[in-house]
Amino acid sequence: MAEERKKILEVRDVKKYFPLGKGRLKEGAPCVKAVDGITFDLYEGETLGLVGESGCGKSTLGRTIIRLYDPTSGTVLFEGEDISKKSRKEMRKLREKMQFIFQDPYSSLNPRMNVFNILAEPLLAHGIFKRGPELEAYVKDLMDKCGLPSYYCYRYPHQFSGGQRQRIGIARSLALNPSFIICDEPVSALDVSIQSQIINLMKDMQEEKNISYIFISHDLSVVKHISDRVGVMYLGTMVELASKENIYGNPQHPYTQALIAAIPIPDPEKRHEMKLIEGEIPSNVHTPSGCKFHPRCPYAKDICKEKEPPVKEIEPGHFVKCWFAGDF
Which domain of life is it from (predicted)? Predict the structure, then answer.
């Protein structure tokens, strides 16, 4: 059970707002509420999937957790240590333990550096190795583990395919032996056959090194394959969080139900009812009152428009942010 395992990450009411226009965020001034009060835990060796429509705040949450963005408010505890207000110098010491795999393998690699220098850079920056045969042997072994022939190490990013570039990105994130990696749509730009190779590689690395992942994606089929638990985000909030069995087999939030119903079935003989979500996603500058999903929810009632719903635990480990959670 997840509760018996060590918590590696504790996120508590994290918010990230961006000011409109130039200048700093000011109280009362209009702002973009990209992440608006997210709370969850991540356990050692676990994969938590984050899903939702484009613009719901998944990537911003990931970057805020790892402190590529400073949180507007809330706390992030990594291995029991509050990192939400640490300085850049203090965060540098923690970068060995936490890493980030970027979405675009084309733009996340320096085109002027060959693969050896890309993988060696973090090792040299953190003083783990000095230039020499030991560093070269380590980098080549890392490439072999990630499915890249070691004799490719002096090639440049433009000489690789998309799948190979993503493997380089994964190898770079694994170079420092981290315990926690945020994966921001790492397979969305790849062909389906390459996607499976990358996901299987990540699962193999997780089993070998007991790594914890936050896996951000809009592809619910991929998330189902790799995740232990799944969090569903809508307009900067977490509307449902549960094991993947409950999310896919017993979704309780109307938004989650619509997302699950939209997953295509690869069988022309089978038919299933699609619950289309009417309307456009509202602005995250002027968010709806009460439940943020109420303008698009087919079950919305007056209380949904007036008051923000609490988070209910309808069964152990299954959290839903809805006034009528458990009634659907």
Answer: Bacteria
Question: What's the 3-state SS for 152-195?
Answer: HCCCCHHHCCHHHHHHHHHHHHHCCCCCEEEEECCCCCCCHHHH
Amino acid making up residue 140: K
Residue 218 and residue 188: Cα distance in Å, rounded?
8
What backbone torsions phi and psi does residue 58 show, to the nearest 5 degrees?
-60, -50
What is the C-alpha separation between 273 and 261, in angstroms, rounded?
7
DSSP, res 279? S
Indicate the pairing of strand 47-51 with strand 212-216. Answer: parallel
Which 3 state secondary structure label does DSSP give 230?
strand
Contact indicator for 56, 234 with CB cutoff of 8 Å: yes
- Cβ(83)–Cβ(91) below 8 Å: yes
Whole-prediction pTM:
0.89
Contact 151, 104 (CB under 8 A): no
* E strands, 209-315, in order: 212-216, 229-234, 237-243, 311-315
**CB proximity list for 315: less than 8 A, separation 6 or greater:** 246
What Å distances lie between residue 12 and 119, 296, 312, 318, CA to CA? Answer: 33, 27, 16, 17
The three-state secondary structure class of 292 is coil
Instruction: Scan for tokens 């592809």, then name that residue.
Output: 219
Domains along the sequence of the chain with CATH? 2-97+176-321 (3.40.50.300)
Count Cα neighbours of 182 within 13 Å in the Cβ-side half-sphere: 21
What are residue 249's DSSP bridge partners? none
What distance lies between CA 192 and its chain's CA centroid? 20
At residue 145, φ and ψ (nearest 5 deg) are -65, -30
- Give the model confidence (pLDDT) of 151-192 as tens digits: 899 999 999 988 888 889 889 998 998 999 999 988 877 778
**Nearest Cα residue to 281 out of 262, 298, 294:** 294
**Partners of 36 in the β-ladder:** 15
Its sign, for the CA torsion 110, 61, 6, 206, is negative
